[in-house]
Design brief:
This protein is an alpha+beta fold and about 130 residues long. Helices cover about 35% and strands about 35% of the residues. The chain has a single domain, classed as Electron Transport, Fmn-binding Protein, Chain A (Pnp Oxidase, Chain A), CATH 2.30.110. A seven-stranded antiparallel beta sheet has the order 2-1-5-6-7-4-3. A hairpin with a 2-residue loop joins β3 and β4. α3 packs across α4.
């Protein structure tokens, strides 16, 4: 179950792990959908590569720049990359939480890339 404070936060710091065990944190938008926390990102990012190697992640409430406040809610989980139908699920959930801001990024980005949408959905289970 997704912790409430994490689900309500506009941004979370998604920490993925290199093969060496080094942590890499990135601020992302995330939305609760059932028992999963969903994230949307480009399919060629480092976090996607690291999730392919190991699904271990840590999620922490943060601000837009990735700054984590003292005592911020944190939870460890397992991430998995979603297929095309899963990405549709992520897009619908993101639109529900972020509204026009998300739609602008999603559709606007596709226009810039001549219709291509090289994104992937990530589902995190705690």
């Amino acid at each position: 179950m997704v912790p409430d404070e994490i689900a309500r936060s506009p941004y979370v710091s998604l920490t993925t792990y290199r093969r060496s065990g080094d942590a890499v944190s990135t601020p992302v938008w995330a939305v609760r959908d059932g028992d999963d926390l969903l994230v949307w990102t480009k399919d060629d990012t480092g976090k996607v590569k690291r999730i392919r190697n190991s699904g271990r992640v840590t999620v922490t409430v943060c601000d837009a720049r990735g700054r984590v406040a003292d005592g911020a809610a944190t939870a460890g989980g397992t991430a998995r990359l979603l297929d095309a139908s899963g990405l549709d699920r992520v897009r619908k959930a993101m639109t529900g939480k972020y509204g026009l801001r998300f739609r602008f990024l999603d559709v606007g980005g596709a226009l810039v890339r001549l219709g291509k949408r090289p994104q992937v959905g990530i589902a995190i289970t705690f």
